TrEMBL record:
Coiled coil stretches, renumbered: none
Biased composition (Basic and acidic residues): 552-572
Organism: Desmophyllum pertusum
Name assigned to this protein: ABC transmembrane type-1 domain-containing protein
Protein family membership: Belongs to the ABC transporter superfamily. ABCC family. Conjugate transporter (TC 3.A.1.208) subfamily.
InterPro entries documented for this protein: ABC1_TM_dom, ABC1_TM_sf, ABC_transporter-like_ATP-bd, ABC_transporter_C-like, ABCC_6TM_D1, P-loop_NTPase
PANTHER family: ATP-BINDING CASSETTE SUB-FAMILY C, MULTIDRUG RESISTANCE-ASSOCIATED PROTEIN LETHAL(2)03659
Keyword Transmembrane in record: yes
Region (Disordered) location: 552-573
Chief location category: membrane
Membrane topology: Multi-pass membrane protein
GO molecular function, one term: ATP hydrolysis activity
Amino acid sequence: MAEEEAIVNTPKGKASYFSLLTFSWMSDVLKLGSKQPLEEKHLFSIETSNQAERLTRDLEREWLAEERASEQDRTKPRLWRAMVRIIPCRELMTWALLRILYSLASNFLPLIVWFFLRSISTASELSYTTTLPFVLGITLMTGLRTICNGHVVFKVEMMVIRLKVAVIGFVYKKILTLNRRALEDVIPGNIINIVSNDAEAIIQLGVPLNFFLFSALDIIISMAIIWKVASWQGLIGTCFLFAVSAYGSIAAKKAGKLRRNAAELIDQRLQIIKEIVSGIRAVKMYGWEWKFRDLVAKIRRKEISFIRYRGFIVSSIYALFFTSSAFAGFISITALLITGIPLRPFQVFTLLSALSNIRLAVTLHIAQPLRLLADAKTACARMQRLVETKSSDLSQQEKQSLLKVYFRGRKYKSRSVRIEGVRSGEPVLISARKLEATSQHIPPQIVLERVSCFWSQRLERPTLKNVSLMATNGQLVGITGPVGSGKTSLLMTILEELPVSSGQISCIGKIAYVPQTPWLHVLKETDYIIMLENGSVVYEGAYSGMEIVRSKENQSNGTKKDEEQQHYAKDESEQETAAAIKSFAAEEQNERIDLEEEDEDRMVGTVKWGVYWKYLRAALPVVLIVSLAVFFGMVQGKWMCTVRWVCSRFR
């Protein structure tokens, strides 16, 4: 009931049928955005079904169902299947119906134009009763295509935005359940790369995938029209378009592989930069700046080479979009002339229009979506690898303190045997005895006995080896050492963020810590926290109540600052000085804003033409830009002259 009320209260829920058909329910916001920058209060309220928490829960539920189904079928779970299932079936059916109507309207429009041109060219005199149905059909098909295209694109964009929000929320929620070693194992670089670049690949796939799924229907209808208009000889030109489609498929596969290689290099580069920032003191001390700079530059050059090669492949697909229709039309018309089939202007017009529809399908509706589909596949694989990551089972450490284990063999001791190391030829468990729990009070303490651990399972040398430590209640213990000696690793081991490979850890009491990863916010609203200021406790309780303390503190600080300003500004000269400083600060801020937004209108956000010119100049010199513009104009003029000459020959 609450969800239905939330939908009705939105402008879309209150809109009429005509407003929904023409998207006029968004006109007020668009009109306001043309006059001033839009703020959060001007935007529409989010429906319950589109909220991030709801979408994240839905994706998590579907992923668990996918894992259970895959386990029963003995197949590998797929993240994209769980993502598709969070989209309601009603929206999918509506989108499919609108897309079919768009295909029919787009492909039947040239056919109706062909009937119209044939009627006015073969009839001895014009008759409005004969031509009026064709004119109404052209108008109806054009309007239907426009309306269906707008609604199809709107629905697809809404779907992919929901998927992106759900994936980002799911990935972030998964990160909170992983320990530090699990994150280091699954992600060689930075997690932000997955959330930003890989999730963006889902947005880019939306509209192209919409055209790709129905491209076969478009091609079949266009080929039937060509057969009707120009017989089978007109279909010869489509062979060239199918060759273009095959090239697009191969190019898409290659582009996806290059994107995967570039993403791995980006992760590697971010990992190196992260290590440089973490150990900047050691880097400065030993003068390693130039070596690390050369290493990062080498990886960056290799990364740029992959990006450039991929850009060349993508640009070749777009180049075929502008040239393939002319080649296909030339082949078809040549075949018709050789076989002696008479051609008329309306036949040539319809033939070229149908070939243009096929060209649009094989280049932009097949080749480009295949490339984006390969990118999205790589992104989903990277995100699924993170989602499937399991934290190391730290509960075994607690069980080790409650069990006394006996092994057959003299050279093995219970404290030095790893559970994952029990294989054939190694010690065999013959008995175990559970120790009784004690009820006496034990003071807080931390005890480490010959602890060894690894940051990564791929490392041969342990990060910590045979470390023993005992810190009891009332002791002040400091951990010192050079950079890279293992101070953070020791603390992570005590916090159970770094699993223990051998040895025993006993922590009695509660431990407070501040994570060193600033972007990873791990506190929940129900977590118990203690906030200190100048050595005294300011707040102690649930994390959700800290916001109230902060707001009161900000108000008190603001009142205190006002009193201090009034106290220090008693003298008239001091007041004038304060006013001058305030005016100077305001002028400096306005000047800084003008420098940052000199090429952008601060009222409506429009970008000046100079920005586009600077963008072009950053890539090419002026002479080459002008030459390309002249060449483009010549090609377009030559094409128009060729079409006009062909039509005049068969008049």
